């Protein structure tokens, strides 16, 4: 570092900080938010930290400086993280007999309060679902009141938390033989589940909506309304609530012997404690198996945030995955996975 010019020294100091933070972030999936909440907040910034370290690596590489090794080594240590952030391969799509398609979509109450200026957003969402026609549809923030009519779905399981504006529903083209709800305490969030029959198999499908920090994601709004202290306080609180919700979910899931699919809005990234615990040893992230690009599922400017997931039992073959980030019907983008039990 002694041979570096003053500006390069400043760059390397910034590089060292970014590399250190990324290295620390590798511990996040193993640190319960209740034990160290402030560290868990860092999980939201992991995509940015990875991108920054790639930029630093390229910067030093172009100058043929050995300082490039710092970010390179840290990135290589977290190689598995890169697969969660970005998939270089094209989307996989395999058509096979007995494929099963699962869609997850946070519809934001079907635009009940006119967040989107388009007055036909509700009808547009319904038309989109009819076009894609998944076998099982998991909806978060399903509005109360008159049930939504979806052609081709003979049954659905809607469960609501008491005294809130919306809930969550599962629509199915497959026979539902059992259904239920996990009521999370002191929150508008919860999880619902159904057991569906396909051929000779009974499959458990969970629709999970974990705690949100309830923060407006517009950068100018955050800068004007939220101090850094308030922002951190809200996120820490949300992640601690998520831990409790995940613990309740895992206790419920442990009693099920069926092949399981977990879909929903986790309100956290693939670098978080909540995601890691839900994924466990028996599920796979269908985006990592068959998706491509960043898989951005939340509408926030200049930031590839993936907080919606479809996790499937390892006994399924993942034949496809798609993120519909070319449509703007909610603050989330719908995602769909295609699975098959034929080995």
TrEMBL record:
<dbReference type="InterPro" id="IPR036691">
    <property type="entry name" value="Endo/exonu/phosph_ase_sf"/>
</dbReference>
<dbReference type="InterPro" id="IPR005135">
    <property type="entry name" value="Endo/exonuclease/phosphatase"/>
</dbReference>
<dbReference type="InterPro" id="IPR051916">
    <property type="entry name" value="GPI-anchor_lipid_remodeler"/>
</dbReference>
<keyword id="KW-0472">Membrane</keyword>
<keyword id="KW-0255">Endonuclease</keyword>
<dbReference type="GO" id="GO:0004519">
    <property type="term" value="F:endonuclease activity"/>
</dbReference>
<feature type="transmembrane region" description="Helical">
    <location>
        <begin position="69"/>
        <end position="88"/>
    </location>
</feature>
<keyword id="KW-0378">Hydrolase</keyword>
<dbReference type="Pfam" id="PF03372">
    <property type="entry name" value="Exo_endo_phos"/>
</dbReference>
<feature type="transmembrane region" description="Helical">
    <location>
        <begin position="12"/>
        <end position="31"/>
    </location>
</feature>
<keyword id="KW-1133">Transmembrane helix</keyword>
<keyword id="KW-0812">Transmembrane</keyword>
<feature type="transmembrane region" description="Helical">
    <location>
        <begin position="37"/>
        <end position="62"/>
    </location>
</feature>
<feature type="domain" description="Endonuclease/exonuclease/phosphatase">
    <location>
        <begin position="103"/>
        <end position="332"/>
    </location>
</feature>
<keyword id="KW-0540">Nuclease</keyword>
<protein>
    <submittedName>
        <fullName>Endonuclease/exonuclease/phosphatase family protein</fullName>
    </submittedName>
</protein>
């Amino acid at each position: 570092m002694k041979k570096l010019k003053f500006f390069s020294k400043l760059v390397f100091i910034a590089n060292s900080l970014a590399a250190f933070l990324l290295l620390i972030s590798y511990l996040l999936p193993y640190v319960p938010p209740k034990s160290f909440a402030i560290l868990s907040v860092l999980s939201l910034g992991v995509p940015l930290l990875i991108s920054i370290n790639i930029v630093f690596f390229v910067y030093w590489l172009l100058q043929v400086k050995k300082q490039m090794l710092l970010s390179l080594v840290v990135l290589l240590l977290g190689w598995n993280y890169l697969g969660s952030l970005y998939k270089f391969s094209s989307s996989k799509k395999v058509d096979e007999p007995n494929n099963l398609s699962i869609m997850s979509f946070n519809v934001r109450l079907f635009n009940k309060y006119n967040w989107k200026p388009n007055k036909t957003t509700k009808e547009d969402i319904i038309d989109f679902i009819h076009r894609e026609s998944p076998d099982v549809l998991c909806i978060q923030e399903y509005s109360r009141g008159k049930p939504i009519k979806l052609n081709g779905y003979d049954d659905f399981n809607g469960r609501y938390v008491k005294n809130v504006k919306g809930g969550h529903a599962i629509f199915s083209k497959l026979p539902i033989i059992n259904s239920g709800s996990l009521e999370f305490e002191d929150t508008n969030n919860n999880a619902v589940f159904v057991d569906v029959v396909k051929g000779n198999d009974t499959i458990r499908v969970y629709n999970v909506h974990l705690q949100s920090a309830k923060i407006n994601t517009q950068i100018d709004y955050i800068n004007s309304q939220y101090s850094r202290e308030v922002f951190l306080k809200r996120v820490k609180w949300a992640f601690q609530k998520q831990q409790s919700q995940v613990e309740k979910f895992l206790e419920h899931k442990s009693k099920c012997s069926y092949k399981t699919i977990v879909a929903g809005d986790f309100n956290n990234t693939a670098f978080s404690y909540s995601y890691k615990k839900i994924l466990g040893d028996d599920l796979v992230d269908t985006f990592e198996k068959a998706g491509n690009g960043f898989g951005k599922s939340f509408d926030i400017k200049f930031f590839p945030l993936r907080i919606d997931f479809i996790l499937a039992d390892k006994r399924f073959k993942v034949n496809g995955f798609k993120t519909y980030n070319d449509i703007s019907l909610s603050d989330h983008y719908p995602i769909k996975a295609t699975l098959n039990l034929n080995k």
